[in-house]
Specification:
890 residues; alpha+beta; 4-stranded parallel sheet; 4-stranded antiparallel sheet; 35 strands; 20% strand; globular; RNA-binding
Length: 890
RNA sequence: GCCCGCCUGGCGGAAUGGUAGACGCAGCGGACUUAAAAUCCGCAGCCGUGAGGCGUGGGGGUUCGAGUCCCCCGGCGGGCACCA
């Protein structure tokens, strides 16, 4: 999904392993990967019959840019922890992987390197697949597909045709955002600050005939359903709600005092019908039909409209945001005030795409209208009186008043508050038949046409006699021609000598194929459903999607908070309405991970220096950094998102080769909460690596210990360790359930530390029976550690477990451990004792001791007694097993 | 401009309203070693010799008790952005 390409030179190969009984990840990781694969551990059926509860874990599939990057490693590690954990909890887990394989980089590669997009893409996929496999992910690889395969996109064409038939597709002549560098149309969402999201080129406005998916038909439910999506991050729901942008207001028609080219009225949309009496002008968008009509006879108007088009979304317009207008000389009548008329302006700040492309200007209560009115000397009449303000003296200066208040200077609305005035105004408009209350949406239909080769062909044929004719089912898929050239700008499909010439399926006459291809967001709007039955000869097998959908846990970057997720939600509804699925929402749970960041480095030479890769930098003991080899000073820059341009990238392949997949996974999980940005540091990885070695040594030390039934007697050390072991099971379980992977890691470090303590105690404890008990407890602890660590470091877990409990088989097949409830209860509890809320000491008592006993012990504690000396205790607060607080006087 | 989120040691962070700083990283001291690496043991919020005091961006409030709840302010980050 992410088209950025990460490339860094491979770092030098350090040998991290030294002497000693070490965990050899280099042999262990491939071994267990082969073992899981051979046993088909992670394969599930399209329609399972085993009766297990289903769980569908999905990470956003990658764009095959060539290499995996750290963002992928984080994403797929998070998903794998969930998948392995849920599997151990008895779920049948669907955990698939595939490729978001259409898109511009392949065409760019074709242009720059003369390699065919398909070849480039499939080679990248092969490379990235191998990299992912080295991570040891619990994926069902038999479900893999790439969206550029005709076996995939033929079903996308079928879905489109079904949507077309269901009235969910429209062909519209529309103003589009044209990217002159990429030579293609961009969705509004793909225009960032007036520039193409990929090329960075200034976007122009152009009128084209385009295919649109009618996402706006679903706007109300796409909005209302957000309320129930309690396993989505609040801020993503909010971003989507803002994007859909529901507003309530009125649509009303202003009569022109004299008709213009047959037009006798102008329709506007407003959220403030209560301010109609404050009107001072009417403004229309430069693209408005009335503007075109005026321009046809008025050269100055034509020039102004042309000027607006040039400025359009240009940088100058965006940055200065200055308002320009042209007075057409036309006038409109006020709907309420007999005889009053107002000028009609063409204004650059009125958007044709929103509402009706026309507004009425009320400068006193809208900042934009005020700016415009001040610039052109138009009247400013306040009609909403702020609470407490004086009607006689209230005036508007440079700031419009947009707050609450009561209507004044407003005829029949006078005295009403803003909400009541809105209702009254709408009633009056409706009574006169010139307007009505409406709900308006910011969301616009989804333009999916792209003038590109490397995408899914839109399966329609244009016939001069029959118009637009859908490609018949039996002629699907419409496949891309392979013999294309990229030596000139524009769409290679359009340049192809023969491809577009076909017979009309309806009348048989020569006709022309649609040469546009789909926006690649279409490909990713249903792939999650295809995974349920990836080999089927229909888009999806109903029984399979009904079983697996919705995705229980979807994981990916926040950058897809709006586009991909909203399109997928729309697509799922459209698929439901065309009989493909039963669900409305594709993703029951969503988790958005943070970015992976790293320090950046620059040479000190020159004005800005040269960016250096981390491998080229050597850190000195004094904290300074120098260039490896030359010893030249290096400027350590800020920690920021890994990017090729800043060269602060770390190649996952190199990390896995040096430390192993488990270490990389462990570090990425341990550093911080997964929703935040994490900083990749060499020291952090090294620490994670040390842990793998340490716990492996512990397992080796206890591997010859027979794992029989518990011995009859446990000494204090053994009892302590067992308590920690079982509390860790409970704590890690809770942490994993809550996506608190860094906390799970911390609890496992604690368990490892406790085993270390027990090891020391083993040398000291007296009595053979106590020794045996402690050894048994240590064996239990390290075995539990292996099993608890398994979702995060699966290879190490298997390697340890194979030594500790070989008779039990693989960890991957074992259920998740359950703590012994009896061991979760402590022998004693330490209770904090406060005097006036300040900690003065602690007392250790049996759990659930009666209040008076605890309070007595607390008062007796020497330091507490000292603090209470000479004071009168007015209140004794006792919270069982937690705290005692004395409130004193005097 | 509007909306949202965040702010805890040197750093990443932990903490159902109940012993703030778990755990890790970095650091310091020690053991082992001819030496280093690795490993192991120990110390470690700040001020103070100590008793003790101060501490979760700042200020106020609720509470026996606030990192946690409420109000105000500040800073940082993100989303939307001429949406009428």
């Amino acid at each position: 999904m992410d088209e950025s390409v990460t490339a860094a030179p491979a770092p030098r190969q350090d040998t991290a392993a030294a002497e000693g009984p070490r965990y050899d990840f280099r042999s262990a990781e491939p071994k267990w990967q082969r073992e899981w694969d051979a046993r088909g551990c992670f394969r599930v059926a399209d329609v399972p019959t085993d009766g297990k509860p289903k769980y569908y874990v999905l990470e956003m599939f990658p764009y095959p840019s060539g290499k995996i990057h750290m963002g992928h490693v984080r994403n797929y590690t998070l998903g794998d922890v969930v998948a392995r954990y849920k599997r151990a909890r008895g779920h049948a887990v669907l955990h698939p992987m595939g490729w978001d394989a259409f898109g511009l980089p392949a065409e760019n590669a074709a242009r720059e390197r003369k390699v065919h997009p398909a070849k480039w893409t499939y080679e990248n996929i092969a490379n990235m697949r191998a990299e992912l496999k080295r991570m040891g992910l619990s994926l069902d690889w038999e479900r893999e597909f790439a969206t550029c395969q005709p076996e995939y996109y033929r079903h996308q064409q079928k879905l489109f045709l079904d949507f077309l038939q269901a009235g969910l597709v429209e062909r519209k002549e529309s103003w589009v955002n044209w990217d002159p560098v990429d030579g293609t149309v961009l969705a509004n969402e793909q225009v960032i600050d007036g520039r193409g999201w990929r090329s960075g080129a200034l976007v122009e406005k152009k009128q084209l005939s385009q295919w649109f998916l009618s996402i706006t038909k679903y706007a109300p439910e796409l909005l209302s359903a957000l309320d129930g999506m309690d396993r989505w991050p609040e801020r993503v729901r909010l971003m989507q709600a803002n994007w859909i942008g529901r507003s309530e207001g009125a649509r009303l028609r202003f009569a022109l005092t004299a008709p213009e080219a047959g037009l006798d009225q102008v329709e506007v949309y407003t959220t403030r019908p209560d301010t109609l009496y404050g009107m001072s002008f009417l403004a229309i968008a430069p693209e408005h039909p009335l503007a075109a009509a005026v321009a046809a006879r008025d050269p100055k108007a034509a020039e102004f409209v042309a000027e607006c088009r040039r400025m359009g979304t240009s940088e100058a317009a965006i940055e200065t945001a200055e308002k320009f207008g042209y007075d057409t000389g036309l006038r409109v009548a006020h709907p309420f005030i007999e005889g009053a008329t107002y000028p009609v302006w063409i204004a650059n700040f009125v958007l044709m795409e929103y509402g009706t492309g026309a507004i009425f200007g009320c400068p006193a209560h809208d900042q934009r209208d005020l700016d415009f009115a001040r610039k052109y000397g138009l009247s400013v009449t306040p009609v909403v009186l702020p609470p407490g303000a004086d009607a006689a003296s209230f005036t508007i200066g440079r700031e419009a008043y947009v707050g609450p208040g009561t209507a004044f200077n407003s005829g029949f609305l006078d005295g009403l508050d803003v909400d009541a005035a809105k209702r009254a105004a709408i009633e009056a408009l409706e009574a006169r038949g010139v307007g009505e209350g409406v709900v308006n949406w910011r969301l616009r239909d989804w333009g999916v046409s792209r003038q590109r080769y490397w995408g899914c062909p839109i399966p329609v044929i244009h016939c001069e006699s029959c118009g637009v004719v859908p490609v018949p089912d039996d002629q699907l898929p419409v496949t891309l021609p392979e013999d294309v050239t990229f030596d000139r700008p524009g769409n290679p499909l359009d340049h192809h000598p023969t491809w577009k010439h076909v017979a009309c399926p309806s009348c048989g006459k020569p006709a022309r194929r649609e040469t546009d291809t789909f926006d690649t967001f279409v490909d990713s709007s249903w792939y999650f459903a295809r995974y349920c039955s990836p080999k089927a000869d229909v888009p999806m097998v109903r029984a399979a999607v009904d079983h697996w959908m919705p995705v229980d846990q979807y994981i990916g970057g926040i950058e897809h908070a709006i586009l991909h997720l909203l399109y997928s939600r729309f697509f799922t509804r459209a698929m439901k309405d065309t009989g493909h699925v039963s669900v409305e929402e594709p993703f029951a749970g969503l988790f958005t991970q943070g970015m992976v960041t790293h320090e950046s480095y620059r040479t000190a030479a020159g004005p800005n220096g040269t960016w250096l890769y981390p491998e080229e930098v050597e850190k000195r003991a004094d904290g300074s950094a120098v260039q490896r080899g030359s010893g030249d000073p290096v400027i350590v820059g800020r920690v920021e998102a890994m990017s090729k341009s800043k060269r602060n990238t770390i190649d996952p392949g190199a990390i896995i080769a040096k430390y192993g997949a488990d270490t990389a996974r462990w570090f990425i999980l341990s550093d911080n909460p997964p929703e935040r940005d994490m900083e990749w540091t060499e020291a952090g990885v090294a620490g994670a690596y040390r842990f793998t070695q340490r716990v492996f040594r512990m397992a080796e030390a206890l591997q010859s210990t027979p794992a029989g039934p518990p011995p009859g007697m446990f000494g204090p050390a053994a009892r302590t360790l067992r308590g920690i072991t079982h509390k860790t099971v409970a704590a890690v379980t809770e942490a994993l359930e809550g996506f608190a992977f860094n906390v799970a890691v911390a609890r496992l470090y604690e368990l490892a530390n406790a085993i270390g303590e027990a090891e020391k105690a083993a040398g000291e404890s007296a009595g053979a029976e106590a020794q045996a008990g402690l050894t048994w407890a240590r064996h239990e602890a390290i075995t539990m550690l292996a099993r608890l660590v398994a979702p995060m470091m699966p290879h190490l877990a298997e390697e340890m477990h194979a030594r500790l409990r070989p008779e039990q088989g693989m960890v991957a097949d074992l259920p998740w451990p359950e703590p012994d409830p009896a061991l979760l209860v402590a022998d004693s509890v330490t209770i904090a004792v406060q005097v006036m809320g300040k900690l003065r000491g602690t007392v250790t008592v049996p759990p659930d001791s009666p209040a008076d006993a605890v309070i007595a012990a607390a008062e007796a504690e020497p330091n507490v007694a000292k603090a209470l000396e000479g004071k009168r205790i007015v209140k004794r607060v006792h919270v069982p097993n937690r705290i005692v607080n004395f409130v004193v006087a005097g």
